[in-house]
UniProtKB/TrEMBL annotation:
GO terms for cellular component: membrane; plant-type vacuole. Keywords: Membrane, Sugar transport, Transmembrane, Transmembrane helix, Transport. GO terms for molecular function: sugar transmembrane transporter activity. This is Major facilitator superfamily (MFS) profile domain-containing protein. The lineage of its organism: Eukaryota, Viridiplantae, Streptophyta, Embryophyta, Tracheophyta. It is found in: Membrane.
Length: 487
């Protein structure tokens, strides 16, 4: 039975929301008549350009996360909000993201990766407008929920799309662009928040999605999703565009066809089947990594970084210090993007978690010792500086591996026939833990700063063990090879 015949039962299950396969095929036919290889190369759309376009989604993600930090004083003053009301506003993005995460996998499976990003962009735009024109807390809350919903879809769809279009030798670096873009979005929110009023900052938050929407019309749909849906001609045309019209894609085409043909064509599987190692093992790894990413406490530290800096060393220019921390994250994530295809995923995760464990231990000890040291002593000041160094070390360690790599591995290891459901569950787990950490971090810091960082240190130490024992290396392997290894 042919691949086309095998796929008839799923052909009608989903249609590309943004269908552009015809002009890809036209471009392929035209390029075959060109005489020079240079003209052929110029007629193709590179995978890097596709990644740069969809990276606008994670920039939106980061801008949403960073928006609440520089705007707290101004919003609470202008709209006469209490601290608890503003805390609720800040945390509602996590609630919206959990709702978006629940639906993200099914949306991406039914209408495609590009259509899913289009759906995510619309509530983001509406949400920013609601915040910009808010006259009371109700519009703030509605806008934050809508933003969170869009971000929840983006956080699943972008890493999956990048993993499915990238060649195996570039998949790590391109996949890490997702987290790099998040850190850039956070930094942009911090920096612009120093200079513009909060309503204008909300309007600026619309820009990434306004550029993303037209950009989606100029990139191909994921070839693996098209193959799963039985759209053979579009699948091959999309892959040819991504690899270049002068590239022989026959081997990769056959691998993807075999992978799709060997998996169940049903959109859902029975829960009893999850007992099979090929399903539960990658699902456990994906959920585990994404939950440990948040339980490390990074969002709690970043969200309350100004409070931590002031408590540790009496830094009054907390917004400037927060911007500096955001810039360090961007640089460290950029280094991770460069290293991930050279050193591998496991090694970077182990190094990252180890650096975080050591840094958090330093911070915890410094805060404990400050409790037994006189405020006016030189040792007290030294301990404050050590605390700041430890917090910066934690942020660097997180950015080197635990920030970008869990999303990358999740997109690589989940089997194609459960990717929608499993990806939604893993993303939901990540956002739920993000909400738990951001809601409890301030309470824990009030209870004991040293105790808070000790809890985060224990989680980071457990992450080292988790990665060492269970997480496989996916560097240099095709998605089909990775998924076959779990059988």
């Amino acid at each position: 039975m042919s691949f086309r015949d095998d796929s008839e039962d799923v052909r009608d299950m989903g249609k590309p929301f943004l269908h552009t396969g015809s002009w890809y095929r036209m471009g392929s036919r035209q390029s075959s008549t060109m005489g020079s290889s240079q003209a052929i190369r110029e007629s193709s759309i590179s995978v890097v350009a596709c990644v740069l376009i969809v990276a606008l989604g994670p920039i939106q993600f980061g801008f949403t996360s960073g928006y609440s930090s520089p705007t707290q004083t101004a919003i609470t003053k202008d709209l006469k909000l209490t601290v608890s009301e503003y805390s609720l506003f800040a945390s509602l993005s996590n609630v919206g993201a959990m709702v978006g995460a629940i639906s993200s996998g099914q949306i991406a499976e039914y209408i495609g990766r590009k259509g899913s990003l289009m759906i995510a962009a619309i509530p983001n735009i509406i949400g920013w407008l609601a915040i910009s024109f808010a006259r009371d807390s109700s519009f703030l809350y509605m806008g934050r929920l809508l933003e969170g919903f869009g971000v929840g879809i983006i956080s699943y769809t972008v890493p999956v799309y990048i993993a499915e279009i990238a060649p195996q030798n570039m998949r790590g670096a391109l996949g890490s662009v997702n987290q790099l873009s998040v850190t850039i979005g956070i930094l942009l929110a911090y920096l612009l928040g120093l200079f513009v009023q909060w309503r204008i900052l909300a309007v600026l938050g619309i820009l990434p999605c306004l550029v993303l929407i037209p950009g989606l019309f100029f990139i191909p749909e994921s070839p693996r999703w098209l193959a799963k849906m039985g759209m053979t001609e579009d699948f091959e045309a999309s892959l040819q565009v991504l690899r270049g019209f002068d590239t022989d894609i026959s081997i990769e085409v056959n691998e993807i066809k075999r992978s799709v043909a060997s998996t169940s064509k049903r959109t859902t599987i029975r829960f009893a089947e999850l007992k099979r190692r090929r399903y539960w093992f990658p699902l456990m790894i994906g959920i585990g990594l994404l939950m440990l990413q948040q339980l490390s406490g990074i969002n709690g530290v970043l969200f309350y970084s100004s409070t931590i800096f002031e408590a540790a060393a009496g830094i009054s220019s907390s917004n400037v210090a927060t911007c500096a921390l955001g810039a360090i994250q961007v640089i460290a994530t950029g280094v991770a993007t460069w290293l991930v295809d050279k050193t591998g995923r496991r090694l970077l995760l182990i190094v990252s978690s180890s650096v975080m464990t050591f840094s958090l231990l330093i911070v915890a000890i410094a805060f404990y010792m400050k409790g037994f040291t006189s405020d006016d002593s030189s040792l007290y000041s030294i301990l404050g500086i050590i605390s700041i160094v430890g917090v910066v070390g934690m942020a660097i360690g997180f950015s080197l591996g635990l920030g970008p790599i869990p999303w990358l591995i999740m997109s690589e290891i989940l089997p194609v026939n459960i990717k929608g459901l499993a990806g939604s569950v893993a993303t939901l787990g990540n956002w739920f833990m993000s909400w738990v950490v951001t809601m409890t971090a301030n309470l824990l810091l009030d209870w004991s700063s040293g105790g808070t960082f000790t809890i985060y240190m224990i989680v980071s130490a457990f992450t080292v063990a988790f990665v060492t024992i269970w997480v496989p290396e996916t560097k240099g392997r095709t998605l089909e090879e990775i998924q076959f290894s779990f059988r």
